[in-house]
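User: My advisor, Dr. K., asked me to get a structural model of this assembly before our group meeting. I'm new to this, so sorry if the format is off. These are the inputs:
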Amino acid sequence: MPAVSKGDGMRGLAVFISDIRNCKSKEAEIKRINKELANIRSKFKGDKALDGYSKKKYVCKLLFIFLLGHDIDFGHMEAVNLLSSNKYTEKQIGYLFISVLVNSNSELIRLINNAIKNDLASRNPTSMCLALHCIANVGSREMGEAFAADIPRILVAGDSMDSVKQSAALCLLRLYKASPDLVPMGEWTARVVHLLNDQHMGVVTAAVSLITCLCKKNPDDFKTCISLAVSRLSRIVSSASTDLQDYTYYFVPAPWLSVKLLRLLQCYPPPEDAAVKGRLVECLETVLNKAQEPPKSKKVQHSNAKNAILFETISLIIHYDSEPNLLVRACNQLGQFLQHRETNLRYLALESMCTLASSEFSHEAVKTHIDTVINALKTERDVSVRQRAADLLYAMCDRSNAKQIVSEMLRYLETADYAIREEIVLKVAILAEKYAVDYSWYVDTILNLIRIAGDYVSEEVWYRVLQIVTNRDDVQGYAAKTVFEALQAPACHENMVKVGGYILGEFGNLIAGDPRSSPPVQFSLLHSKFHLCSVATRALLLSTYIKFINLFPETKATIQGVLRAGSQLRNADVELQQRAVEYLTLSSVASTDVLATVLEEMPPFPERESSILAKLKRKKGPGAASGLDDGRRDASSNDINGGVEPTASTLSTPSPSADLLGLRAAPPPATAPAPASAGNLLVDVFSDSPAAQPSLGPTPEEAFLSELEPPAPESPMGLLADPAPVADPGPEDIGPPIPEADELLNKFVCKNNGVLFENQLLQIGVKSEFRQNLGRMYLFYGNKTSMQFQNFAPTVVHPGDLQTQLAVQTKRVATQVDGGAQVQQVLNIECLRDFLTPPLLLVRFRYGGAPQSLTLKLPVTINKFFQPTEMAAQDFFQRWKQLSLPLQEAQKIFKANHPMDAEVTKAKLLGFGSALLDNVDPNPENFVGAGIIQTKALQVGCLLRLEPNAQAQMYRLTLRTSKEPVSRHLCELLAQQF
Amino acid sequence: MFRNFKIIYRRYAGLYFCICVDVSDNNLAYLEAIHNFVEVLNEYFHNVCELDLVFNFYKVYTVVDEMFLAGEIRETSQTKVLKQLLMLQSLE
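Assistant: The format is fine. Below is the predicted structure of the whole assembly, which you can bring to the meeting.
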């Protein structure tokens, strides 16, 4: 019998280790170590050459110190020297040091590789194994480059010893896993497969691991391994418990090899060859049969080894998913384990059954165990086992047992461990949605979830219930009634308030007929929760209130009172304050019709994969495509808050609701002064935001809302009366416009509001209105930094002739902009005559002492002064013919840069400013428009025609105006937009 | 569970033997692999105790390398491993 005495052979090491163990404190240990390090350092540096034994001893001490957790920055050279020793014990310590303290020092790597190369070529099996183990343990790319080509040779060489083959196989596996590109495939691969037939079971054990890994990458090249693996497995499984001698472990023949072979077979579909398949099925049946035999030993090792094979067999059966008989037998076997006294076995049985539940052949068989699994969920002592039980219930759930499973999971939730509550909540939410036959059950279930485990109900879950209620009108009344009842509980979770607030705001009218839930009762119930809620919830409730004003005019006075209260109007939270101010103003200035439109019921949500499902996947599969899921979650959370999914068309063009209000189609008559503008402005603001209900996160559009002036009967001309002196800087001061200025300008040709410019310091937003030949533009300069801008001076300059064509008057702005603050600048614009180039906006300020300067093109283009003109087909053609001089027409044929969507195109043309004339062009695909450009000096009539060719993805645009340069200019501007 | 892996462990007196494997790996097989390893240590060190492992840490590495390599099981036969260890022990 081998016996090893303490510190055998290295007394100094044993003494050192004893010393360390005897240290009473951390400090003492560090002191002892430092002493030893100094000693070793002096020995290594000393003049006297050290003998091999001393080197080994000191290197070993260094290794020990490193393993205790201290840094070692010397001794590598001595370790490398040991590699070339001809004594095994010295070589072993050298290799161990190198393997443990891998160092990418290139000089050393060369020396190490050299030593390894010598050992590999030594034909001494002990040295070869040491070298192979070192490569396998380090597995660096450098080693791969040096040895990947040699090792296959050693592996399949006829004269290699068995132990060398074992090490070579696994060494190659390591290199292949680390850098597959370095391992050359070739003639050796065929011979590797035949190692499965090797006499030495240890070689087979090592080779199976290598082959399994190679199969996964190149299944076709290694197909021959299937039949070899089956026959090997068959020989093991059918052998008597003592046949394999050395490889029998507690009466189980070669358990690890069996498991590895079964895993190898899981790389492939069932064998095609009938004989092979028959043999394999026989093997699998034998394993299942053996599970029923009485154990040959009472030792846990025996049953563990036996069951390891059994579980792997079941995995293979599940993987094939084609043998109903075997699947059902596997399921029954697992069913027995569900009640086994070994916790490990119950755990594994639940886990395997989870996969069986997804097979059509065994799903029903799994379902028969439902009571046992529910019982496990209730009674298991170990949380991880309960978790598996919950997983299995989730997997076995279908329409037939959904109600039972959901109610059991809900009951479990009341006492569930905190760690798994959120997951249970997600699962219940998904099952309730997936198997809901009537949606009132679904609504009840989700509200129960919130009641029982409100803290664990994530946003996704309550967003989802709102989406479903919004999209299904058969459940809206029931939902309103149920949330109303739920809110009556004296203490209800904030998530309940959110869901309740949203649903009553949308569908409260459906239960308003009942005096017990009349509008004032609904409102006071919600408002009783208001003060206990977080900002986000209060913001949501404010939106509910404004919706109430629309739904129930009788609550208007009360609600306005609430909004007007100082605690809202002057709330320290900007979001709440903003909502209170806007909603109050909206409710006072807008007519009932406008209110009804703005505060209309939310449109149905687009169908998409449940965001809850995505979240569960993310929880379950760490790492896998989580970035994608995050994106989806964000999209959907915007969605539920903001209402409608912001699509390209709503973002880049006036929203359709503007048309609904009839503002764009029919502007006020030319003579009307502008006093109505305040009201219009407000409505405009709403129609430009993609949702009727502002989203919780402030968007750029929303930021404008806060800048709204209170309604004032002031015409643009009135404002012009007190203009700030325009201090035009001399031309020498004006830098050229920034490179992207043209692109930014193009964004605004068909729209009036948006973000004009943004960099790390500054955001410039624009909101503008044009009427006749006049315009008013609000520029919002936001300081994005935390430092003050000084000498802030934005000015408008008119290059060239523009002075005579366009008058722009700017109001003075504060010269200092605090960090995070926004200042507004009002520009009054008058178009004197037609112009081709936009004015420039020059923004100069000092930030942190450094002067900043920025030149942009102001989004004022000639088409802003368009007045749409409706006319009949006959008139159109008559005028078209009148403008037939060659110079009056401008035409462009160009490729579509955006998808050719008729609705988007329409919206863009309207945004451009012309009227759209239907039934003029004989081809309904074409668009025809007309308008008049209003300037102070003259009016320019303008006709346009746009002919899309969807097949070629091209457009032809023709413009005819009474003024030649205008035709060309408009044509250029508009052509950029499609 | 540990990151994307799972840890299988077994306790012997005051010592935990841990093995970190892929989530899909066979739990019981690795649980028994630990035991197999401990039985080899026990034979090799004659009733192994914690101190044997501390004082002979560099030999423990040799035992590990014989039985596990490159993250895989290399040799499972206790007889074969011990024979090899004995042979190495006899070398200088």
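One thing worth pointing out at the meeting: Chain B touches chain A through 46 residues (CB under 8 Å).

User: Perfect, thanks a lot.
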